[in-house]
Amino acid sequence: MRSPLVLDVSRLGRRPGVMMPVHQSVPSPSRIGLDLMAIDVGTELTLDLRLESVSEGVLVTGTVSAPTHGQCSRCLEPITGEIEIYLTELFAFPGSATESSTEADEVGHVVDQTIDLEQPIVDAVGLALPFAPVCSEDCPGLCTQCGVVLANAAPGHGHDVIDPRWAKLSGMIPDATLPAATFSDKEPPTS
């Protein structure tokens, strides 16, 4: 069974100027994106493309859009979004000057009267998605001491931390009051 992103271009032939519009939704054949944000497998990709026969191959232009899912890089809460990428990709005809003068991974190829859009979409989505997505620009993240989501923490959330220079003494002297460095996660200690 072939990928839904493999399109038949036999109707275009090798006649420059012949155009074929593609307006359809197809399921994503794989997870497309980055570690923290991606288009999930099976998510509908909306293709709004124009396939045009040119002297050297098939020129694909247009947009691909889909919903994205992931997690915030600061607080790890789930987030969703939408992505729309613009494609301009040439798929070289077998035996064309473009095919013979470029490296195999520099340009796509028309194979058995089909083109495979998956790799160009993967490349474009990877460049368009944020490397460190956030649920909001002012997301405070997680507490460095206990891991609670600071956006949901009580006001003034903080921890008493014994000064590391005195920490060993806390086990030697019962009920000793040792100097503590008190700070909240929003206000880091100063040295």
Task: Give the helices and strands, then pairings.
Layout: E1 6-8, E2 19-27, E3 32-33, E4 37-39, E5 44-54, E6 57-71, E7 78-92, H1 97-101, E8 108-109, E9 114-116, H2 118-128, E10 158-162, E11 180-184
Parallel strand pairs: 7-8
Antiparallel strand pairs: 1-9, 2-5, 3-4, 4-6, 5-6, 6-7, 10-11
Question: Explain this structure to me?
Answer:
- The chain has helices spanning 97-101, 118-128, and strands spanning 6-8, 19-27, 32-33, 37-39, 44-54, 57-71, 78-92, 108-109, 114-116, 158-162, 180-184.
- With 191 residues, the protein is mostly beta strands.
- It has two domains: 6-128, no CATH class; 140-191, no CATH class.
- The strands form three sheets. Strands 2, 3, 4, 5, 6, 7 and 8 form a seven-stranded mixed sheet that branches. Strands 1-9 form a two-stranded antiparallel ribbon. It has a two-stranded antiparallel ribbon with strand order 10-11.
- The termini are far apart.
